[in-house]
Amino acid sequence: MKRNILFIFTLALILVALENCKHEPKTTIVKTTTTEADSAYIGTKYVIGSNALTFEFPGITNPYKDSLTVEGIQLGRMLFYDKHLSVNGQMACASCHILSHSFADTIPIATNVFGPNKRKAPRLVNLAWEPYMFWDGRQPTIAAQAQDASHNELGMVATNAVAYLQADTVYAKLFKKAFGKAGATVNVNQIYLGIQEFLMTAISINSRFDSVMRGQATFTQDETAAFYAIFIQTTGECFHCHSFGGNYLMANYLPGQTFRNDGLQAATTINDYADAGRGAITGVPSDYGLFKNPSLRNVAVSGPYMHDGRYKTLDQVINFYSDSLKYSPNMDQFIALHIPRDSSGNYLPVGGLHLTTTAKAQLLTLLNDMTDTSYLNNPAFKDPF
Ligand code: HEC
Ligand code: HEC
Prior knowledge:
The protein has a two-stranded antiparallel sheet. A two-stranded antiparallel ribbon has the order 3-4. The protein has 2 domains: 51-204 and 377-381, Cytochrome c-like domain (Cytochrome Bc1 Complex, Chain D, domain 2), CATH 1.10.760; 208-369, Cytochrome c-like domain (Cytochrome Bc1 Complex, Chain D, domain 2, Orthogonal Bundle), CATH 1.10.760. With 385 residues, it is mostly helical. The protein has helices at 2-39, 51-56, 70-81, 93-96, 142-152, 158-167, 169-179, 188-200, 208-213, 221-231, 239-242, 278-282, 314-323, 333-336, 357-368, 373-376, and strands spanning 111-112, 115-116, 259-260, 291-292, 325-326, 350-351. It contains 16 helices and 6 strands.
């Protein structure tokens, strides 16, 4: 009897154990599924930063700098090249922003889905450090700019774009990874944030100029003359606007110094500027005819030049600074230094730095030194489709 009880008890134990065994794989499966579902919302953190960056560039101004993910960057890259976002399915950001030209356009004024633009599509480089977007700085962040361009260049219809992206399994997965639970259903703002993530990684820091600044290479005599005797001297005045103390972005974005008039447009009164630039945004009289100092990185591959693409070559740009700086009411103080006055003290209409042929050639060499071929050929920036 006792034996029987023991037997039944043991059997019961075994049955319970077996039962548990049966359940165990189930439990495990349930667990795995939960983990997978959660992991679908967790992207891989991506950190922008290297010693070279800390040395050459000041802190990133973009507020999203700490929330980048590998998936968000991939998402942005796809969106940047995807023509489906446009109203006619024929235009993408990349139609006007071409990688081999440092994401600049190759023509003065491109036509968007609504008609001709007003200005030249500029280089996109080191945007994470730029406090203003557009030649007139009318947008504050890359995301705000991407929103502006999605509508005003691509004619994107938000509901159509969202429906297309949500229905695409690759996109849907990337949105989840990039934006966590908030990315489960795509919303239109995430399109702009994704593009912003991609463009924040478009960093150029490997030009010959950088190598020299990092002490890994040395300037030739001509380059030394160009940088130390022209670019950062009153001979050229370039550094006031295209660089500033200890900063190698090759642009001046300091508060109050970002928008300047470099003597490009002749004007007698502020209403004569063909393009009012910053003035049209702020309405402040002293802002008329001012434009954002463009970074000179990759400048050699991204002509035509100036906000209206008026100069085809860098030679022409250098000749402009040398021989045809124009008087206008809002010309920069450093431009004014190079515009002569008549005997009554009135400015003449045209002036210039009056560079020698040698100086011009040296300056051109320095501008060529800003070209970063590793940027222009970076596989991570190429068309993913
Ligand atoms: C039809 C041509 C065209 C298309 C398409 C286009 N852009 Fe642009 N982009 C321009 C032009 C022109 C400017 C300068 C306009 C101005 O300053 O007024 C510009 C300026 C910019 C800037 C400012 C850069 C700076 O340093 O100030 C960014 C960033 C930019 N575009 C990103 C985008 C993105 C993202 C898209 C896609 C959503 C896009 N662009 C689509 C023509 C285009
Ligand atoms: C007072 C400020 C200022 C000075 C000084 C200055 N620049 Fe500029 N530069 C600008 C601004 C602003 C623009 C854009 C103007 C526009 O498009 O209306 C510009 C445009 C350029 C461009 C064309 C960039 C492009 O993407 O189209 C080049 C190249 C350039 N400058 C080189 C130089 C060189 C070299 C010097 C020195 C010889 C110099 N600049 C001096 C402010 C300045």
